[in-house]
Amino acid sequence: MSNEPKESMTRRHLLGAAAGAALLGSSFDAVKPLDAAQPEAPVRIRESFDFDWKFFKGDVPGAQISSFPDSTWRNVDLPHDWSIEGPFAETEPTAGPGGYLPTGIGWYRKRFRIPETYRNRKIAVEFDGVYQNSEVWINGNYLGKRPFGYITFAYDLTPYLGAGGNLLAVRVDNSHQPNSRWYSGSGIYRHTWLIVTNPVHIAQWGTFVTTPHISETAATFVSKRESAMIPAWRKSARFAAQSTKKMPHLSRARKQFRRSPMATSTSLPRSCN
Q1: What is the rounded distance in angstroms from the CA atom of residue 22 to the CA atom of residue 224?
Q2: Considering 46, 77, 148, 247, which has the largest number of Cβ atoms within 10 A of its Cβ?
Q3: Residue 56 and residue 68: Cα distance in Å, rounded?
Q4: pLDDT tens, 29-57?
Q5: pTM of the entire structure?
């Protein structure tokens, strides 16, 4: 009997319908001339990594190892919150802010294969949010720890991926209670993504804007982009492309904010920082 929630089944049906429509469309494309130009592979691919996870509530030594037996673990799709499943108890250390719900430690595992079309590309896994103090392994290799739980983060999988199957393991520790003024939940409570890029690409959070010089009449606008290289090169390679442009309206916005009652000598609107 499936343990998957109705919402997950609905998402599966929707994705299945979309895939069917795409297949129908491709059947019409098959009648095109054979010499038609083939489309290039997308420079950046961001595909859902939410389905077909295994979950165990509790701490299990060795669960990061690929050969660890997990056939008795629950099948879950993400996002997943094990706290909301209860049971409620006044004795839970989360108390009122945490809804008197259980927390503790949990493990997630996912087996997956990498398509041949992704060969020689950089592959990363991205978590929109894990609550909290998560640790991640790929094929038994430790990737890192993300303290707390309200932030997006990613790990590079490229150096550790195998030609056959791969195993991603995540340990979530929400046992230190109380740790929130409101209900936080426990687990991989947001979406996950597989990110595929070229070896040289714009790094995560690699595009940002600054205005380093602002006068009463104009402001200097600077945009920067950081690139990332595949770890196999064992060196970092970053570049910055800068462009400047006079933007008087930024100076006016800054001046107007300084005149407002809420302004302080050290604060500026986010758009002017």
Answers
A1: 37
A2: 77
A3: 13
A4: 444 454 455 567 788 999 999 999 999 99
A5: 0.70
